[in-house]
Amino acid sequence: MAVDGTDENNLEQGIYTKDAARLGKNGRRRRSLSDLSSSQKCGAWASHFQRLFVSFIGADWIYLMLLGFIMAVLSFTVDIFVDLFTEAHSWIYNLADSHVVLQYLAWVTYSLFLMCFAAGFANMVSIQATGSGIPETKTSLRGVMLQEYFTFRTLVSKVISLTCVLGSELPVGKEGPFVHVGSVCAALLCRFMSLFSGIYKNKARNEEMLTVGCAVGISCCFAAPIGGALFSLEVTSMFFVARNYWRGFLSATFGAFIFRLLPVWNRQEETLTALYATKYRLDFPFDLYELPIFAAMGIVCGFGGAFFVYLYGKISLFVKKQKAKNSFLMKNCFLYSALVSVLISTLTFPPGFGQFMGGRLTKKDSLISFFDNRTWSNHGIVADFDNDDHLAAWKHPQANVFIILSVFIIMKFWMSALSITLPIPCGSFVPIFVIGAAFGRLVGEGLATLFPDGFNVDGHIYHIVPGAYAVIGAAALAAGVTHTISTGVIMMELTGQINYTLPILISVILANMVSQSLQPSIYDTAIRIKKLPYLPMLSWGHREKYNIYVEDFMKRDVRYITLNSTYRDIIKILRSGNLKTLPLVKSAESMLLLGSVGRVQLLGLLTQRMQHLREDNASTMPVRYKVRFQTSTEESASASTAKPLKSALKKPPVDEEEITSVYDSGLNLKKFFCSRPEIKAMEDDSDAEDDTILQEIEEWEEQQLVEQVTFSSCKIDPAPFQLVEHTSLHKTHTMFSVLNLDYAYVTSIGRLVGAVSLKELREAIEDCTPADGVRLRPVLSTFRDRGVRGTTTETIALHQLLEHQISR
Amino acid sequence: MAVDGTDENNLEQGIYTKDAARLGKNGRRRRSLSDLSSSQKCGAWASHFQRLFVSFIGADWIYLMLLGFIMAVLSFTVDIFVDLFTEAHSWIYNLADSHVVLQYLAWVTYSLFLMCFAAGFANMVSIQATGSGIPETKTSLRGVMLQEYFTFRTLVSKVISLTCVLGSELPVGKEGPFVHVGSVCAALLCRFMSLFSGIYKNKARNEEMLTVGCAVGISCCFAAPIGGALFSLEVTSMFFVARNYWRGFLSATFGAFIFRLLPVWNRQEETLTALYATKYRLDFPFDLYELPIFAAMGIVCGFGGAFFVYLYGKISLFVKKQKAKNSFLMKNCFLYSALVSVLISTLTFPPGFGQFMGGRLTKKDSLISFFDNRTWSNHGIVADFDNDDHLAAWKHPQANVFIILSVFIIMKFWMSALSITLPIPCGSFVPIFVIGAAFGRLVGEGLATLFPDGFNVDGHIYHIVPGAYAVIGAAALAAGVTHTISTGVIMMELTGQINYTLPILISVILANMVSQSLQPSIYDTAIRIKKLPYLPMLSWGHREKYNIYVEDFMKRDVRYITLNSTYRDIIKILRSGNLKTLPLVKSAESMLLLGSVGRVQLLGLLTQRMQHLREDNASTMPVRYKVRFQTSTEESASASTAKPLKSALKKPPVDEEEITSVYDSGLNLKKFFCSRPEIKAMEDDSDAEDDTILQEIEEWEEQQLVEQVTFSSCKIDPAPFQLVEHTSLHKTHTMFSVLNLDYAYVTSIGRLVGAVSLKELREAIEDCTPADGVRLRPVLSTFRDRGVRGTTTETIALHQLLEHQISR
């Protein structure tokens, strides 16, 4: 199983032998080191330590803790800069208090400048940084890996422009982008670690790590490890693997720990507490009579969440349509962002309309004030709390607190829905939290005004806690928008109080039920609008509609290799596409599927052949040709070993790239085997070359290529995933989803008749779905569905089956 | 797709068509109702409401809320009775305070009586009620459904004897048994609901509901919905389905809500709070310097947890060995239980040794005292707290609090490990919680004594909170024993405070890491000791060892039907086993696999045939015979319709049982078709029957059975799950695990060559594992493993592949 010299490698990398071939070079280098050190004791120790180091680096927990640490530092740094930006904003604003117009200009232009910079930076450095990033992460984890979304460029673009956007006080959040940033960090860290340990070259594992990245992203935003781990599982996967759950927890816990530790070290805080720590009473959190109100809030938030998603979808589609029409406004990405920025900051201008909607508070300040322990209202008028700037924002001489809260909710609702359609990095989570909290505070304050005496239980008087209503409202609205339960858990961790578990969970579940029956989640809506290659779920309730079998949508024109394939055939096939594996059939006539051979294996065969040619066939080679050939191959060999390690960060599959790049450039086939360009050069050098010699060379080349491949040294997967023609679309979809397959071969009585990849499957599903896009199913509706796992028995009548048998 | 008359059924049951055939009867009954009602308006409405009712009942959330409600009421009732028992115990104990011997007798015999009753009841009513039940549930969810563990008898036995055991104050918990009780309730509720809606006849769905049952069980024990949902996923599944997560949350939340609502209604509590609500300070939960201590506690608890599992395993094996030797002590299950009960209650006798270990406190009282807000010790001596019985138990004139706590920990450690090996319903979770909390309290009190002045942060003095150490210790030790993270979440919900999230998670993760590297979890140990048919995980690290392919362990002697099969063949096959589906091949010579046919389908064919015979072939039948035959079939037809619905609760697949029971009783084949016994009776009646007539009848019978089956009306699954001979054990295992398969056919170039069921797979895996039993892998070690999902590429060399090709 192990390629020569990678034995010690294999041991440390568990069963990650998939990439063993690629490691060949590293392994050889290491072995040559230990050979050398057998004479030197010191060297032996060095090699021992090196091996220990590799095995240490290969351990999951090192990776997970590193990831948590990096994300925590990133999140903390972003927070610091955002604070700096907002402080500067209020400083400039206060500086210009001589005249209201000056103040207005200071207020608006500051935001405008930051917004334009953010939009420009994101669009110039990496366009993939715009938007939330959760839809793309979700797609990469289930549908197709969107490689360009996980580059260092995207990371830089996303982090820097996100900081500016948040600093501009637009009602967008940090959480969605941080899920994306977490995934990018996870992907980049995998690539970096792959320099030290082969375990990180396994693609399946690295994709799993993206899920962990999501968990850490949330965890480092809200200091909510449990909620983060759960959110990542809920949002990204249909099927959880116990392993990922563990990894998520470990990394998220460490990330949250560092994220909360940094402010303590920075002397901003005394100790590790929740981000928005609340201090509601512990002995009597709520009365039974309040429960129906919490439940009603959940239902209202469900409707609100669905409406938010609807609004977002409408605005997005409108913007998209305008863009397609290529109107002037949409031509320039700056202009749209700038316009929205000016609109929003004009409306929130504190001396203007902003005074009716707490305009001068940032999102953070608003949340703190909503979660406040105290009851604001005394029959509608905010009581005087000394030296508390946050609460004063809700006090207005002409309007009572209910009006201000209502205006705040309505204005922020459409502003948030509008803002998250901008071509900038932006999340919808935190603005939704703020709106939900405002709604909860409104309800709470209303009740506190209606029942100023609170509840009398056994002689104790317990007043209503409007802050708790804000907590519940925030959780429920977020649940309604994202269709997750974990928002409730995040809320508990965020506020540091768990004694509202039951009201929170009840309202979150109700919000989910209502919202899921009305609209897809905001992420699924974004996937639909952006037309991302996400493998949609089938709506099982109407499976009669999907009366489609594999034979109806499989790709019939499958490239295959046979036992009689020549080197020429293989090169042709390898050039014709970038399939990871190729089916091996007995012969082109019988088409009996023997197994599948990896692309890497075939490339290995070609390399072997090259070496073989150089060593043995030297005698049969034309003389002049031989000299050049040997020179060139030796050169290329020395060049490849001298390749700096650094480049691995950019191009992980070094060996493959090396070989394929040779193919893809012009006269590649022959160059690869026979270094033809050298011959050409030779031709140019010597003016009058003999035609016969050239003829001879070409014939010799032909011979080399026409020869049959010997597969004896090739590793063959004897049992590639196979389907039969009659497998239904449903069953295929289930298997692809659950087993996370990329492709499967279709056989009929052992004969290869076609292949199905994610692409064909997706197209087949999309063909059955309404024309207005992919229909994405809400999670809750799965409540009614049967087990996707388990043997799905789908039946046809015999005469149909026999028709097929006969037609074969 | 739909069987006649079940259309409306199908609509409401989503895609649960698997059992459509079985529903035939119900559907027909309903339709006949609607036919009738077409003349009567009122009847139409009735049928409409009936359909609405069926669709309502079929909705998941109804089921889930019902399950939560039932479990909450059960849990609350058990708690009430346990409280009654313990109150009675202390009443009797106090009554006998005239003399210490009398008191001792009262103390010991009370426990002894309850224990003996519990052991006797459990062993007599249903032996399946003994033990925790989590290992069995785990096995049923992954390996083989242990039907006898999910009966009403087991439920009654478990609940009643559990109440007595808990009342006897043995150091065992309620949580393990309640996971089992939850699953049993889920299974029984499915059966009950199946009377109203066909959706509940789907086996795969019902098995998924068992997971929900586990979540509700935990949730109703600890009022911990989030922890319960997570624990059930962690313990029972390797692969989570998003659907189950939702279901678990919904049901667990409702269960916990009702469970906490009942005491409020019962006027025991004022409002819904946590079960062991704590009131630690919110502003400064802990100092940074305390974190290393929390981490160290996690590591110590990891070792402690592993040692507990080791101890439990050793005791269990010892007891098992003794039982096998059939020694007198072990012959009688009472004697062992009684002896342990006497030993433990003697040691805890408060005026005796019990005074050094808080003997008079129940588990609940101990936990309350450990989680207490106050610091007990003032340099080792418990301060005087007025009117607090619980804390007074830790005060002793001769010994300081550290000695008492240490004695408590040591004694309870072995007592708990011993108690959970008894043949009674018992869980290990709560005793472990108590021990962990005691350990935490010990550490906390020690620190409070070392640093009596606490921490001075920015002029504020913060004292150490030993109660928080108890919380963390409890979570960490429970994590070490059960190998889960959710114990931390359960702990937070149990105490109603979340501001120790980070310390709890850190210590829980560390405890897991240590413990998992030393021992399997307590549930896996129990599975190993009880030799339950659990599909073990393969240790991927050494997959070279498992160089085994499907062909090496598949069952080659597969029963199949061909297109030319006669009715006789089918009857023979159906009698020979109880396979759910049978492969259909083209002919016995070609063995080309066409698909698979369900047992139910074949039974349907036979029933059809019977009706056909009665109606059409009457003319070819010998005369006398015909008369009898018609009478008998009519009788049986009327009998089957008159069958009461009630019996469905006992025997779900009514139709099948009906038919197979006919086969299995003596002269069944012929009786079924031709009601031969009637003929015999006839023979007996008339003395001198003509031999020629009998001959004629037998020949006619032969003709009927030899006739070829027409499969035209039969539903055939055209794509049963297929493997090829070369599929490795690993890959097979992965597919079976992930897709939750029961069986798969093995084909070679389209020809059926064998079949693999869970049984063969398990045996194959066990053959590769060490002789001392199934090797179960810790969860954390999966950290190192590659994706089980994704295409596992296993390769062999060509020559091996071709050898097989040639040998074919």
Automatic annotation (TrEMBL), chains A, B:
Gene Ontology CC: one annotated term: chloride channel complex
Record-level GO BP terms: chloride ion homeostasis
Subcellular location(s) per record: Membrane
UniProt-listed Pfam families: Voltage_CLC
Keywords: CBS domain, Chloride, Chloride channel, Ion channel, Ion transport, Membrane, Repeat, Transmembrane, Transmembrane helix, Transport
CDD domains in UniProt: CBS_pair_voltage-gated_CLC_euk_bac, ClC_1_like
Signal peptide residue numbers: none
InterPro entries noted in UniProt: CBS_dom_sf, Cl-channel_core, Cl_channel_volt-gated, ClC
Protein's UniProt name: Chloride channel 2c
